[in-house]
Design a protein that fits this description.
three-stranded antiparallel beta sheet, elongated, 13 strands, six-stranded parallel beta sheet, 15 helices, alpha/beta, single chain, 427 residues, 2 domains, Rossmann fold
Amino acid sequence: MTPGPDGEGLLSGLKVIELASAHAAFTGKLLAEMGADVIVVEPAGGDETRRWFPKIETACGEVGSLWWEHYATSKRSVVADLRTQEGAELVARLIRAADIVLDGAPAGGREGVGLDPRDWCGALPALIWTSVTSFGHADPRSSEPFSDLTILAEGGPVWSCGYDDHRLPPVRGGGNQGCQLGCIFAAMATLSAVIERTRSGCGQHIDVSLVAAAGVSTEAASYSWLVARETVQRQTGRHAMPYVTTETQVQTADGSWVNTGIAIRGPSAFGAIIDWLGEVGLINEFQDAAVLELGRTGPEITTDRIGADPLATEVVRAGRDALIFLASRLPGYEFFLGAQRHGLQCGAVLTPDQVVDDPNMVSRGWPTVVDHPRLERPVTYPGPWFRSAVAPWSTRPAPSPGEHQREVVDELETEPPPDQRHEAQPR
């Protein structure tokens, strides 16, 4: 392994060759910003996502894609035309020097260009090759056209997304969620393979299905159908369930919105609500304070008792009503912070602009300001998806096509000879 361009980060020393594809790009971004040296291989003329909308104007007057600027951060770029001998040989050399290959093509998708993962993993036993496709690398459906929306629909999340008013259609998750779900699984699986390789010395071919990744994110929705043949109902701001549950998304004293979270069922949680009501001087105004006391002094209320046990149901209702009462008397962000201080799972409903400026997100370093040389101004990017003193995170602007061509080729010439796993090449 060789250090990445910045020489730091949890994954510093891992070299990743990303064969450019829109639906696998987020995996490369995650690995790059954790310190891996991710080299994205683009076709002649640059990857197609560079031309996707929405677009921005650069300092030179050229039009750039926000998609590329987001998904290609912290990567290095080389250009290789796989239809030519020169391009195919360059990619082969890069793979022989790499720890990980990230690819979005299904079986046969790169037929004739020498990039079959089975051949490469057979020739280089320590190589980790991660395939990210719609239904799985070998599934013929992965050769069919797909989009982020079809992934969400076929995987299941869409049937859980929407409002209590079922006259309205399902709500599509924004932000490329279908592909990003699979890419997160791909990143986790790839890093698991890296850990396994430290023990066994062996790499492997990782096969990630975007539809399967979406499917396991539906929580009770898929499970309810597979086990009980029950279809869940879309509900505003809360879990889709076979039956209608109590509303959780409420308006606060200042007109903003919060989510009061899951039902309060444990003695410590009821105690926290009582303490909170007392701290803000509202305990005597909440008419069911005595019912909350029953929750604080009683046992944990299991979900099967809600609706079946009248007293347990009433106690749970009082906990929900207390949160709604607090929300009606407090400004939204004050309610959110108060819930956090008392260990209650409540959240503020924020616009995208509010998320960027949110003090909690700012304190975690999530909005990351990066100097962008082509725009000649600072740009705010989404930063770390976790915070850790031992795993620094860094973000660099997305590269221009072939920006690192010369330096990457020079490294192939000057770096120490690769270890034994990279001496072979598939025929």
